[in-house]
Fold each of these.
Amino acid sequence: MIHTFELSTMISAAQYEQAIKSLQQIKCLSNKGIWITQSYSDKGISHIRLYKFNRKKNDPCYSPDSKYYMISLTINPGTMFGGDGNYSNNILNFGDAYIKSIYYNIYEFLPFLETSNEYRYSSSREEREVWYEYNTFKLRRIDFAFDIKSYSDIYLSLIDKGYTLKGSLKRQYYEDELLKEDIPDTDNDFEPEFNDDEFLLPDKKYVYYKSKSLNINVYNKEYALKNEQPDLANHDYDFLRIEFQIKKNKINAIKKRFNLPARDLRYFATPVIEYYILESYIKALTGTGYYCTLQHAYMVIDNSTFKPSKKERLNKLLYHISRRKGIAKTLSLIEIGTITDIGKLSTVKTYLKEISGLGINPLTIPKSTKIPKELIAAGLDESVGAILPSLLTIVAEFNIQTLNEVEEWRSLDKANKVQ
């Protein structure tokens, strides 16, 4: 699912000045030529920013007085097309026609930016594609979201107590090679970085990470909205949102990884890229394996083929994680020497992988957790408690459903063409 995204394009000095004159309630943020307006939020353009910046000295056109100009727009497609902007948008909506409709709406507000508008509704497919190539924006940020309505508070707690992320993000324990691929911007487009990310204030009901490449927000949507919109009686916002705000550096890394031809929305708003992001970072946050009670986890380890001494250490690690209320907290205590009875940090990280290899998550759920009996492990005594599927399993099933819908649409389209 996609919530919002940011588009940008280089403009001329004349277009920059015209935008300042014509846009409503536009304000200058600094003496560096950055302007912003939020006057078009009800139309689905939550922010419009204008930039003026110096050419780089290695630019053939460089001179001390020479400038570049750029405009960026943050789009909420739900609001743009008359929907509820608090919900995310189905990834399958983002076909060529939908993306062009987004551009058409943009040029209704900014007609002076449009080029070759005589081709917009041409009967020639080639001319319409020429229009698109001339008028397309570069993707500067895209927010992929995954919303969970069942057991949302439990999953929020599990994410909060789970693994930590590495690299430029603050917490650095869970091993995931996919998170090492952030690369510098090599597009040679000289776009400036303006760090004005909107993020949630620190709160026990939020999980929040931030870096130059991405932000991660995990929160209950209703809880987040209640201060802004006290009357939510007619809406169903009681769900957990896991949102990945992918910024330009990460977009460039994805472009390189998947050999995409451009930073074009149509290449990024796809089921393949969506699943890659959701799977990579949810795995990093939660690890693998289903969630179960401590008693259930002991049983799985005791029935494994590990030696008795290894079983004892694995069970002791699970006990520490349960007692210390989280994997990250336990690892930090091992690192500083507070916990000494299960080995060094590197050894314990191996233990975590071995526990996950048994199909269970090292982070257990309380025995008192209120979960329907159908989620009690089949054939087991109810005394071991309930289980919850891993978020990775849920995301994988969601992806399969999405791909099946794509195939159904293709089959229908093919059948219609035959007729």
Amino acid sequence: MSGSYAEFRDGGKVVLAGAIGGLAGITGMLTNSRGILLNPLADAFAWNRTEVSTALSALMAGTIVTAPFVGRFVDKIGARRIGIVSMIILAIATLGMTQLSGSVKGFAFAIFLLSVAGCGTTPLVWSRGVATWFVRRRGLALALMTSGTGVSWVITPAYLGALLNTWDWRAAYVGMAAVSLLALIPITLFFHENRGQGASGLVRADIVDAGIDVATAIRSYRFWLIGIGIMLVAGVVASVTVHQIAMLTEAGVARDTAVSLTSLMGVAIITGRLLPGYLVDRVHPPLVASVFLAMPVIACAILQSDALSFSAIVIATLAIGLTAGAQVDLLPYFVSHYFGLKAFGKIYGLQFVMLYLGSGLAPIIMGWGYDTTGSYHAGLRIDIPLVALGALGFLLLGKPPAFETAPIKTP
């Protein structure tokens, strides 16, 4: 039996459960709902786009505050218990969103609390569990696991769109809470870390203890290349995806068409998860990352046009979607690849803060730019050099440390 097959035989259910957790968690459907709910919330409460963008970005603020603590607890008590408890609390908190009034400050605070409630449902948790089951095909396994959030991009527009058309924005939050509750079934049944289970013996006996500590990682230039690079890329991706529907409607595209195109982005996100995940197990990982993370340059250049053709919109959507998929898959891979699993949760938690810092601030700046100039063009022009700089930084990472290429225990 090949090593790759045995790894997936033993850890495949863990990957599936982690993917469902990602779809139903705070970084899945709830994050992907931001662009869909932007206009309905603005219309319902007479908020401008800067206000709505700021309130919705509080989702990122809660994750930024909690990620380092979640990382420490994941390393200490394990991913399974944190994932299950946080998913339950997230479902309850999402239902609570239906009781809000028209105060934009109150809405922003509620969104912040929502992200705190779901802090244990991010890829930080699911990646830890999956990484303990895989060595030879860790890139592909993490790609399959993070594809859950990509699937959410495919189903969220139609799912929430039907709820919005039939009822209102409150129904959208009820629907998302229901998904979180249903996700608990496979997570409870299948998700757990590898503590010596499985007959293949393909995971190194010391895999959980291999790597470097947090202090050593922070002193490494690689830590900052990865962190700053992913922050810039994630910021550009978020600034475009959150405002994409508004950008397209401003360009004369019908709102229903603009919403349906976000499903196409879901297909691109899934591809952006799987293809880089497959390639990093076979090709120089920094090169793979640099290529996929630079693709928003294409999208930002296209979206500056005042006369967007359907084909141009499709190309822009695919480009931004490929990077949106790749960034979430590549971050846990690079953390485990260059720093190991010894302090995976702590290091990934700090990197996750940088990713979400970019994702949280950039849409606000883009919304402010629109309210100030009446156009998204200035923001898109600034995005191009920022995302290029972040992507190219990955080329400087070099080869991984020796612990990642240590011999694997075989039967």
Amino acid sequence: MDSVYPASEPARAQIDALEGPAMLEFGTPWCGYCRAAQRSIAEAIAAHPEVRHIKIEDGKGRALGRSFRVKLWPTLIFLRQGKEIARLVRPVDSIPIRQALEALSAASA
């Protein structure tokens, strides 16, 4: 699991071209909801090493978040072959994250 938000975001074309299962995590390091969700995200993603986890710092002037219509943080977007198959907004525990990851992994197997 990525633990920090990188300074730059990937281009939308890079995300659309991803192979296999991936989970995008949109948020910010100062967001209380984002910080509160980190433990649940870490617990859920640990059981799915086959899923690429990409943290993306979102906010004003960040095109990638706007292209996915992200409005609240954290927003988790689950992708298969670069296509969105599920989305969670402000998950409060690891259960829905685990369920989305299991569905993503099962479909990718």
